[in-house]
């Protein structure tokens, strides 16, 4: 009850709606999955469609769900709840601010993952049904009768030229299993590839952010070493107070010392063993993508396009709720302000708390005082 008392009902409900929208996007994708796809005409002698049908795929749908959904969800939740350091001085797990911060990190971890996977599912299933591209093993599924194949011609020159110049419809197929035949027209894009890259790319970004795994870079600005008035450090060598949170001051102090150090000392590479974390994620998704080619389920372009979709949408999901890997210190964005929980007027500068309100009410991320962030109670609900 004490923890619940520190949350604004108005803002909490707005994030409940966000979850409903994410689930709704996935539900529409599930609806696309149930619809019979378009059957694109094909050549009965196309060698690219003549591969054998593999009964047992190397990566089943259940395994794909574990890799792209369950594993990233569990890992990100554990990191958020057990390993994320709070930005304020804490009295341990009994501190309400500690749990509020950890719960917010958990929420943003899952919202980013859910958004990326939901959008991927939506576009993958929609494109599959709209395009209806034949799989490489379509002719093995079709089981047509070559003697009467020209009766089903829908393109080419018909009987005037050999079969290589003939396009036929799927009505020429004698496959009694309608579901198996429909699945033969779902080649583009590769769903296994898109989902695996979406889930694993998000997990790789999350691990890189939390472990500060990034390519060393120089700051795009510099301070004058002899002008301490521009620095966040007072003449006594201590961070100056300006109404900002301790975490913000720490970042400014770090940036100041980084900018005034010699160039070769401003950034250094992380330990090499840490690269194993994102490398595992990339390797897993690359292996799953390769099985779609070796199982004759997709053409090369289908796999490449699916991978690019997964990477793109996972990046969108990550950046919607998390700060950049290079400069975010492994933190997620703070909640929306209570006043803009359900939207802002035209011309407003975003959804974050600003001005004097931000100074009076520190955000959830800083955790300073009982009135922190939009999730803290504000006297209205």
Report what the structure shows.
The chain is an all-alpha fold. 47% of the residues lie in helices and 2% in strands. The protein contains ten helices and two strands. The protein has a two-stranded antiparallel ribbon. Helix 2 runs antiparallel to helix 3, helix 3 packs antiparallel against helix 9 and helix 6 runs antiparallel to helix 8. The protein starts with 8 loop residues before the first helix and ends in a 21-residue tail after the last helix.
Which word captures the global form?
Answer: elongated
> Separation of termini?
16 Å
In what range is the share of β-strand residues? under 5%
H-E string: HHHHEEHHHHHH
User: What is the CA-based Rg, rounded?
Assistant: 27 Å
Structural class: mainly alpha
Mean pLDDT: 82
Biggest β-sheet strands, sense, barrel: 2 strands, antiparallel
Q: Would you identify the regions where 5 or more consecutive residues have pLDDT less than 50?
A: 1-5, 222-247, 358-381
Gist of the model:
Helices cover 47% and strands 2% of the residues. It has 381 residues and is mostly helical. Residues 1-5, 222-247 and 358-381 have low confidence and may be disordered.
Which helices and strands appear, and what pairs or packs with what?
Layout: H1 9-34, H2 61-83, H3 96-131, H4 138-142, E1 153-156, E2 166-168, H5 178-183, H6 191-211, H7 246-260, H8 276-294, H9 300-321, H10 355-360
Antiparallel strand pairs: 1-2
Features:
mainly alpha, two-stranded antiparallel ribbon, 10 helices, 2 strands, disordered N terminus
């Amino acid at each position: 009850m004490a923890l619940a008392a520190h949350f604004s009902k108005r803002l909490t409900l707005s994030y409940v709606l966000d979850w409903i929208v994410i689930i709704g996007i996935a539900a529409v994708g599930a609806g696309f999955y149930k619809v019979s796809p378009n059957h694109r005409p094909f050549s009965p002698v196309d060698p690219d469609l003549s591969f054998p049908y593999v009964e047992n795929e190397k990566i089943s749908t259940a395994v794909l769900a574990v890799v792209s959904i369950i594993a990233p969800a569990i890992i990100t939740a554990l990191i958020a709840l057990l390993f994320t350091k709070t930005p304020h001085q804490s009295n341990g797990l009994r501190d309400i601010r500690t749990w509020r911060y950890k719960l917010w990190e958990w929420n943003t971890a899952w919202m980013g993952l859910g958004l990326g996977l939901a959008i991927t599912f939506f576009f993958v299933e929609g494109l599959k049904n709209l395009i209806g591209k034949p799989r490489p093993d379509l002719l093995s599924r079709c089981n047509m009768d070559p003697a009467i194949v020209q009766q089903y011609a829908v393109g080419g020159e018909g009987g005037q030229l050999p079969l290589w110049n003939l396009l036929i419809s799927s009505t020429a197929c004698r496959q009694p299993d309608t579901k198996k035949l429909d699945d033969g027209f779902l080649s583009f894009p590769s769903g296994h590839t898109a989902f695996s890259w979406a889930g694993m790319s998000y997990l790789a970004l999350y691990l890189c952010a939390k472990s500060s795994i990034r390519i060393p870079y120089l700051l795009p600005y510099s301070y004058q070493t002899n002008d301490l008035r521009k620095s966040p450090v007072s003449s006594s060598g201590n961070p100056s107070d300006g109404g900002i949170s301790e975490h913000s001051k720490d970042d400014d102090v770090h940036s100041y010392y980084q900018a005034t150090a010699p160039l070769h000392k401003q950034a250094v590479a992380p330990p090499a063993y840490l690269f194993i974390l994102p490398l595992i994620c990339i390797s897993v998704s690359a292996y799953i993508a390769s099985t779609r080619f070796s199982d004759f389920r997709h053409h090369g372009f289908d796999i490449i396009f699916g991978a690019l979709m997964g990477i793109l949408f996972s990046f969108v999901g990550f950046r919607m709720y998390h700060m950049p890997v290079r400069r975010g210190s492994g933190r997620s964005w703070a909640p929306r302000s209570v006043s803009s929980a359900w939207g802002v007027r035209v011309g407003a500068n975003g959804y974050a708390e600003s001005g004097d309100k931000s100074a009076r009410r520190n955000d959830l991320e800083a955790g300073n005082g009982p009135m922190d962030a939009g999730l803290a109670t504000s006297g209205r609900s």
